[in-house]
Design goal:
With 370 residues, the protein is α+β, with helices and mostly antiparallel strands. 16% of the residues lie in helices and 35% in strands. The chain has helices at residues 11-40, 72-90, 218-223, 241-244, and strands at 2-5, 108-110, 113-125, 134-139, 148-151, 155-162, 170-173, 197-203, 208-214, 227-233, 249-256, 263-264, 275-277, 282-289, 295-299, 304-309, 312-313, 319-321, 323-326, 331-337, 342-348, 355-356, 359-360, 364-369.
Length: 370
């Protein structure tokens, strides 16, 4: 999800007005096959290798290894299906599915305290435009939950009203919290029973990229959508990404791999949102893994500068890569220098999480630089 840009305006609006035009421009000069090639880059799919004719000289046939090579019609079907999926992405499927999770929720101010009023409820959620809606869970009716953002040192009060038919609890993952606010039922608090509520109060001590999620029946509840981003901006403005790294966009990227399969911000390709940038822009991406598997995120075309782990700046230990493995519960922040124009694939490199016999799916999107 796009969080914001340097002007403070919503990156969602920016992406919605630019993404489709940029992709359609690519179609204009290359055709859908050209865009598919750009987005599909290095998938390893293509025409079957040419067959070497067998010698004509008579001899005793040698034993043969039988290989189940797909028939030509099957390959044509794969190509057609893969192109159709990419076309859905090009046509902006992500914009047509609502409601969209992960949007910033403005805090209500009570004296010196920032207050967030939250619900926990049963929802219907769409992974893409074609699959039937799923029976999921959401904070304030969406998956991912709203983006909660405060500043280091802020007093925070978050009240969660449980509208589920089951009990739950909420943990602010990555924050240094008073023990009684840690959100682990049976350990630091009673469960939040169906129809009940609980108020978490703490001072935001740990700046950086963090999360909030269920910590009760969590494999099931987090897997069904009880997750969201909690960002604490450094108190010193000079330490914030827009000043420290000169970035113009701040992107939250939450992965999950349970209900609905492999998803980025609650959607699977071709309904994932692309990142759209101008040549020369710098983009800040906050990878957050709320799933149960590791996901190595691979960006085509240009490297990522990894600057923070779990909210803690790496400093002189910062490194550059093009594939970054993000384990369950981890948060990694990267800066991308958009110095190569084009439509660049951006996907999990556990290939069964990103591509199948019918083309790409799940953990795939694109960085579009124009």
């Amino acid at each position: 999800m796009m969080v914001d840009d340097a002007s403070g305006k919503g990156g969602e609006e920016r992406a919605a007005t630019i993404a489709r035009r940029t992709l359609l421009g690519a179609v204009g000069f290359a055709g859908i096959g050209g865009v598919a090639a750009a987005v599909l880059g290095a998938t390893g799919r293509g025409a079957p290798p040419a067959q070497t004719p067998a010698p004509t000289a008579a001899r005793t046939p040698a034993p043969r290894l039988v290989v189940n090579t797909p028939a030509p019609t099957a390959m044509v079907d794969h190509d057609a299906n893969a192109a159709a999926v990419v076309k859905r992405f090009v046509d902006g499927e992500w914009q047509r599915i609502t409601p969209r999770g992960g949007q910033p929720l403005a805090a209500r101010v009570d004296g010196s305290t920032k207050v967030f009023d939250m619900t926990i409820e049963h929802i219907k959620h769409r992974i893409d435009a074609k699959r039937e809606p799923l029976d999921a869970l959401g904070y304030n009716g969406v998956w991912p939950g709203p983006l909660l953002r405060v500043v280091e040192g802020d007093a925070v009060r978050a009240t969660f009203a449980n509208k589920l038919h089951e009990s739950t609890g909420v943990h602010f993952h990555g924050q240094r919290l008073p023990n009684k606010m840690d959100g682990v039922p049976q350990v630091t608090q009673d469960v939040i029973r169906a129809g009940g509520s609980f108020t978490y109060e703490f001072v935001a001590r740990t700046p950086g990229s963090h999360m909030y999620h269920s910590h009760h029946n969590a494999t099931d509840q987090v897997g069904r959508g009880l997750l969201g981003a909690f960002i604490v901006d450094p108190k010193d403005p000079a330490e914030r990404p827009e000043r420290k790294y000169g970035v113009t966009q701040d992107v939250v990227w939450i992965s999950n791999d349970t209900l609905g399969g492999f998803s980025i911000n609650g959607r699977g390709f071709p309904a994932t949102q692309p990142i759209v940038a101008k040549l020369g822009e710098r983009v800040y991406i906050r990878f957050m893994n709320e799933g149960v598997m590791s996901h190595p995120w691979h960006l085509h075309g240009m490297p990522m500068r990894v600057v923070s782990r779990d909210g803690y700046p790496l400093g002189s230990a910062a490194f550059t890569c093009d594939t970054l493995s993000v384990g369950p519960g981890e948060r990694w922040d990267v800066v991308v220098e958009c110095d190569e124009s084009g439509v660049w694939a951006f996907h999990c490199h556990v290939l069964p999480h990103a591509e199948g016999i019918d083309g790409m799916f799940g953990m795939v999107t694109a960085l579009i630089v124009s």
